[in-house]
Write a structure and sequence with these properties.
This protein is an alpha+beta fold and 195 residues long. The chain is built from four helices and 13 strands. The strands form three sheets. It has a seven-stranded antiparallel sheet with strand order 6-7-8-12-11-10-9, with helices on both faces. A three-stranded antiparallel sheet has the order 1-2-3, covered by helices on one side. A hairpin with a 2-residue loop joins strand 2 and strand 3. It starts with a helix and ends in a 7-residue tail after the last strand.
Amino acid sequence: MEYMDEAILEMRQKEKEKRHTTLETGIYVNRKLIEFQTEPLYDQQMELMLPVTFIDMPQMVADVKYPSRYRPQIIKTSLDGTVNITFNIFDIRVEGSGGLEEVAARFQAVLKQVNPAVKIFNHDEVVDGERHYRLFSYKSYGLDAQIYNLVCVTPVGDRILQACFNCEYKDHQLWEEIAKQMFVTIKETSGQRRH
């Protein structure tokens, strides 16, 4: 009888998970429902959907996790610190999607220059209406784990936004599609522009 109860509970869980497969409905990760909300960034120049529970990484943690003086401008993190999304805006102008591809290739070249062992996995171009996104992924190494990284490059005004999602490599299949869905929600807003 106990086996039957477990089987029924498992079926109910799977049915529940089928109803939560988008950022709007929330998505289950390891049987936990992750809910999303629109988050403004860069003085409301842009926005995207992020998990409701993500917070700004505390400075003391950022100093350890991203010790370089070139650490990301904005770092959002899960409460346990295992899943992060970082953002940088660069004063780089691009012309069309070919220019975006060139910028993504330059970022990849810098990665390989800093660490020749880096292997770039996937290259994708996503077009959503008039917005273009260039995505690529790679594996890196943290203090005690392999790290999965998914990078998104897209124009914001006359500059380039570089967003990077990372999590432990062992969890990348749980998060990869979610990260792509979040990146495709990046859009410019009518917020204030910084000069």
